[in-house]
Amino acid sequence: MDTIFALATAQGRAGVSVIRISGAEARGVATQLCGALPEARRAALRPVRDGDGVLLDHALVLFFEGPESFTGEDVVEFQVHGSIAVVRAVLAELGNNKHARLAEPGEFTRRALENGKLDLAQVEGLADLIDAETEAQRKQAVRVFSGALGDQVERWRADLIRAAALLEATIDFADEDVPVDVTPEVNALLASVEEGLQAEIRGSFVAERIRTGFEVALIGAPNAGKSTLLNRLAGRDAAITSDIAGTTRDVIEVRMDLGGLPVTFLDTAGLRETTDEVESIGIARAVERAQRADLRVFLADPGEDLLLDPAPGDIKLRPKSDLLEAEVEGVSGKTGQGVTELINKIQSVLMYRAGDAGLATHERHRLSMQRSLQDLSEARRTLVRGPEFYDIASEELRSAIRALETLVGRIDVENLLDEIFSSFCLGK
Q: How many Å apart are CA 101 and CA 103, to the nearest integer?
């Protein structure tokens, strides 16, 4: 493959910028810039010069000899001063070298995948790690990037291969006197994998929410104080507030870090019967979005009908508690009364749900596991029909194995790669 180079750190002025080169010619290309390279995995200060010998900068140079590198190829990194002019000059000099070309988005990581340094789930974990904004997102992404999901898939795959091998051995010796009945061991293996897949599929919905963010909808009648409460939660005027009923017509979103969890609060239109066509559209959107939210906070007085019933686990509070004389469980966005308690309750509910998060974090992971689970169910039903159907059951197991292999990128994922790697920057 071509030798590639790119800026591995963010564009713009910085204290230090890292320029990365990877490929068979990485050593030779780097030598033309800085002379002799340091020993592998050792750093050394070197002058960086252009083809005419003009000094461009002094850089800390590191050499990683393949396959012991991120990409599995020879890799050289230049840590130069983060001047825009310096970075531009070094990249221009590399661009003039006929033995190297500018990398495409995600090409370094793609080479790591192709050279067996990462599986596809780890690649997605790396992308999630780069995009992580909260502590929960960071922890989850690190776990996937470290290979935890791939390791689990490999254990399932080994069990299924063992089960298929037992069935195929029975088929091979069908005409001989083989007294051992493999069905109990095969059923035990399949039951174990099925149980694991079912648990991981359930946990994937929560894990995906941690990656993309939980949604909490504020529900109430017009003038219930939802927009004022949203502004109080956001610490800024994110929504327009007014004494005029029906001010909020569309869903307003505010994203926050709540105890390490990514949470988007939704301010929705006041729920009521109305003949106003525009307001009706806003109310319909409010109901639809609230139904899809992970948690709803109802601001309503006792017995008030809001066109939407609370689901188990939803939070119900009296609105504008600063105007109430009696001590009630309420909240006021205007004074802040009860806001801290509300935040703590929301955080407690979402933290509890986050505890059920699995290793699979993307819908693609879940679909692969669901296909595998479906094939396993078919194999279990076929096994019950007797040894004469073991060949069919064995094929169904191989199909289940292939579904798991697509999860980690072993087979049939070429059509996904361009989409996945397009989200990476040039230096990754």
A: 6
